[in-house]
Specification:
alpha/beta, Rossmann fold, 3 domains, six-stranded mixed beta sheet
Length: about 475
């Protein structure tokens, strides 16, 4: 019995790829480690039909076709026995790639039309499962209905998980950690404390220190509340630095003060020149855009740290598209920037006195320093000394996010805002969103910071609606 169990464990799986997996991630061929990959002819046909155009899907289809061509061209002796993926994947995958090299006609139930591409892929699956019953044959598809049909026919099917940063969005790094009540007692041994530019710093050593990340916020409630962030981390030792209190009126940012702990954390990230990349997550009304614009305007118009604010967002409609929009690039983007206009109304209302004419002049000055750009024209650009805001970033794929963040030149700060519970892009989930991707990849870097805003501050109606609807 142990012998057969050992043999079963050594049997590699055969993953049959649906077209949408290759169009979602062209490198998915190399993501199945020691298992084998099978590509039906219909998958290649659908790739061929999708390769024309300038969309992200068409680009991915062309890249997947080029990858397949490179792999197949390197094998002059034929591909009937499969192609080892070890060399093309640079050691990432040790399985083999199989292409359909024979006509396959497995019997499908009468209700399924054989002319449809999805059903032809399912017939190939049935043939492979019958040909080698001892080997697990699994369909990998991003299409939910395709997976349901496969399971209805008694075939194994699963989603493509490799692009997911995490399975459960609750496990996403929040950027803040509550210190236990006995933190100072358990970490008091050898503690050092000193002051630098009005801030108090503590060097502490202990068990919790190894689990903290650079630029992670820590806090402790009670009679003497404590808020700080991790400025250095090495093994079991961390250096904690106290924060600027932006809840106090004297530290207001463009007339705005923090209304809760997380907003104070966010303003510390947004106003710190050493932090080049900031991600803010939060539900509707938690203050992401307002805080970011206030910080941007202060650093553009008052301290002149940046030359201007550039704002962009993904143009994915929630309902039906309203058709073509007239005008220049900025005029076409204007309907998508309602959030910008709403927040500017709040910020302009908090600018000095000066009467009606003074406020109008201040509003014009503010708008002259904010540029609205479309994502479609970002490739190849370099932004120098800009305050770049990427709104609704949860609708970006990891690849699009990389394209945007790598636009940053010297002296530029990039701020990504979003709510991963409101994703409108097809095939993107909370785990595979580009926003979740950068939050996970940038955590712990010395020049990046993240905070999840917990409370809505828009209105009691908006907060109640977020809870019950």
């Amino acid at each position: 019995m142990p012998k057969s169990r050992k043999h079963a464990a050594q049997v590699s799986k055969l993953f049959v790829l649906d077209t949408n997996v290759l169009m979602h991630d062209p490198t998915s061929l190399f993501r199945f480690e020691e298992h084998d990959v099978y590509i039906p002819i219909m998958t290649l046909e659908e790739l061929d039909n999708s390769k024309k155009g300038l969309s992200e899907v068409a680009r991915n289809a062309r890249q997947a076709s080029r990858s397949l061509d490179e792999i197949v061209s390197a094998i002059p002796d034929g591909i009937g026995d499969g192609i080892a993926l070890d060399v093309p994947s640079h050691g990432l995958a040790t399985g083999r790639l199989f292409l359909q090299t024979e006509a396959i006609s497995a019997e499908l139930p009468p209700g399924l039309p054989t002319a449809k591409g999805d059903n032809q892929i399912l017939s190939v699956m049935m043939f492979l499962a019958r040909r080698d019953p001892a080997r697990p044959v699994i369909l990998v598809s991003k299409d939910i209905n395709m997976r349901i049909k496969a399971r209805a026919l008694g075939l194994a099917a699963q989603d493509y998980f490799n692009d997911k940063v995490l399975e459960d969005s609750d496990l996403l790094y929040s950027g803040a950690c509550e210190l236990p009540g006995d933190f100072w007692e358990s970490h008091a041994s050898g503690m050092e404390s000193w002051k630098n530019e009005g801030r108090t710093l503590y060097r502490v050593t202990g068990p919790l220190a190894s689990r903290l990340l650079r630029n992670e916020f820590v806090y402790q409630d009670g009679d003497k509340p404590f808020e700080a962030w991790v400025r250095e981390q090495a093994g079991r030792t961390v250096v904690l630095e106290t924060l600027a209190d932006y809840r106090h009126g004297r530290n207001n940012v463009w007339g705005i003060t923090a209304r809760n702990r997380e907003q104070n954390f966010a303003l510390n990230l947004l106003m710190n020149p050493d932090i080049d990349f900031v991600t803010l997550l939060g539900q509707a009304g938690s203050g992401k855009t307002l805080l970011t614009l206030a910080a941007g305007l202060t650093q553009v118009l008052e301290t002149r740290r940046y030359s201007e604010i550039i704002m962009t967002r993904v143009t994915v409609p929630v309902g039906e598209d309203i058709g073509f929009l007239p005008g220049s690039e900025e005029e076409k983007m204007a309907p998508w920037m309602g959030a910008l206009e709403d927040n500017l109304d709040v910020l302009n209302g908090s600018v000095g006195e000066g009467g009606q004419w003074g406020r109008a002049a201040a509003a014009d000055l503010v708008r002259s320093r904010i540029k609205i750009k479309s994502l479609n024209f970002m490739r190849g650009r370099t932004f120098i000394q800009k305050f770049l805001i990427i709104d609704e970033a949860q609708n970006l794929t990891p690849k699009q996010m990389k394209t945007l963040v790598t636009r940053a030149g010297p002296g530029t700060k990039v701020v990504c805002l979003g709510n991963i519970a409101q994703i409108d892009t097809p095939y993107l989930t909370e785990g595979s969103s580009g926003l979740s991707f950068v939050v996970d990849r940038f955590k712990g870097w010395a020049h990046a910071g993240h905070i999840t805003l917990q409370r809505g501050e828009r209105s009691r109606l908006a907060d109640y609606a977020s809870e019950i609807l």
